[in-house]
Amino acid sequence: MGKIENIAVDRLYWDEALETQSRADWDALKLDLLKKHLHHAYANSPYYRCSFDAAGVHPDDVKSLADIRRFPFIDKQVLRQRQQAVPPFGDLLAVPERDIVYISASSGSTGVPTASPFTARDFADWMDYEARQFWSSGLRPDDRYCHSLNFSLFVGGPCVLGAQKLGALSIHAGTVPSERLLAIAKQFQATAIWTTPSYAWYLGETAIKEGIDPKKDLAIRRIFVAGEPGGSIPETRQRIEALWGAKVYDYYGLSDIFGSCAGMCEEQHGLHWAEDHILVEVLDPETQEPVADGERGELVLTTLKKSARPMIRFRTGDIVSFTSEPCACGRSAQRMLGTHGRLDDMLIIKGVNIFPSDIEAIARKDRELTGEYKLVIERENHLDRLTVEIERIATDGGRDDELAVRFAGHLKSVTGVSAKIVVLPPDTLPRATHKAKRVDDRRSGVWS
Ligand SMILES: [Zn+2]
């Protein structure tokens, strides 16, 4: 792989033998990789040796993939603590520092960012995976790919090299003001771009305000998105697609592992997972038992190859659902059906678990609404009260009552929760340019 001059544009798969193998072959491959990786972690990382010993487990105990459940969890807190205890990279590290060629660092809103180290081999493996993922989404050597993610320590930055590896003309745009990004896309007639879903929407609206019709004046036909649940909400995707006249492909990445660990194929039904790199568990957040295929649970990840810093049973805090059903594209890797939100974002309103993404889906579906929304949660007399602010497209409010009743009905049928609906004039709610902040939880002591 990687002979750029020989990449045939018409081939279906980046790595056909791997991508279309049977589920049994996937499991055999993962078990083999898992055993080796656990041995590597135990032999070379002081942290893992100590934590496995403390838990009374040893890599030799692993006879099946389910045996991973005997090993202890780690989470962001552990990464942060170990990095502080053994600076600068922590003792989860399992290679000498001279073997590290690249680090990313998470944007960490609380405290010091955690660094994610890569060896040259880890980095090359990652880029080959990115190329495979882009290929599955239809990116080809004759595309012009505009990478509009942050390059500053952000693990999404180097993904552009995956597009370059598959032979696409790659424009390293980074995060520039939207007017400049539109000018770049227009001048070079870029055919593909990667950004967040809320920014894709904002950028399209900005283009129209500047007199640029994204469908006619720009050549973008594929939009890769990541970082928010919106990319996996069909209604959100379809509205971005209609605005741009392009297809939207959702990707999922994790700053502590890879820029993207999963992405949509051209079928756009779920995100094929990088199963040869990362072992997936989907667990009930309370019981920590695996949930059934298709059910929601917390995503817990174990790296299978990344040697610089193995991640064994990392609790992501992301609530997801998966399926192992065959995909029409012919790829057999399991698919993540949706990222429903962060465990931290899960709202418990009147005892019901609700994610902002549930409400987003309703707001985006109604063609008389702009799709923007805000949730305000208050507590009165020990009772939760949810207010959903939505925006109409029409300038006059003649149909506000009808829109509110319709939205309340959809909300009730989807979530089981009643809410006060406030219909606002267009352009009232703040537009998000990065990760959208759409929840105002005014209850106190809810989590204590
Ligand atoms: Zn597929």
Record field, number of beta strands: 19
Derived structural class? alpha/beta
Global morphology: globular
The CATH topology of the largest domain:
Rossmann fold
Instruction: Give, in spatial order, the strands making up the sheet with the most strands.
Output: 4-3-5-6-7-8-9-13-12-11-10
Q: Helical proportion?
A: 25-40%
CATH architecture of the largest domain: 3-Layer(aba) Sandwich
Architecture overview:
The chain is α/β, with parallel strands linked by helices. The chain folds into 2 domains: 1-340, Rossmann fold (3-Layer(aba) Sandwich); 347-441, GMP Synthetase, Chain A, domain 3. It is 29% helix and 24% strand. It is built from 11 helices and 19 strands. It has helices at residues 16-19, 23-44, 46-55, 76-85, 120-136, 160-165, 178-187, 197-209, 234-244, 356-365, 400-415; strands spanning 100-105, 115-119, 144-147, 169-172, 192-195, 222-225, 247-252, 262-264, 271-273, 278-283, 297-303, 314-323, 335-342, 347-349, 352-354, 369-380, 383-392, 420-424, 439-441. The strands form 4 sheets. It has an 11-stranded mixed β-sheet. It has a 4-stranded mixed β-sheet with strand order 18-17-16-19. Helix 8 packs parallel to helix 9 (234-244), helix 9 packs across helix 10 and helix 10 (356-365) crosses helix 11 (400-415). The mean pLDDT is 91. The protein binds zinc ion (ZN). Zinc ion is lined by residues 265, 267, 272, 327, 329, 331.
Keywords:
Rossmann fold, 11 helices, single chain, 448 residues, 2 domains, 24% strand, 19 strands, GMP Synthetase, Chain A, domain 3, alpha/beta
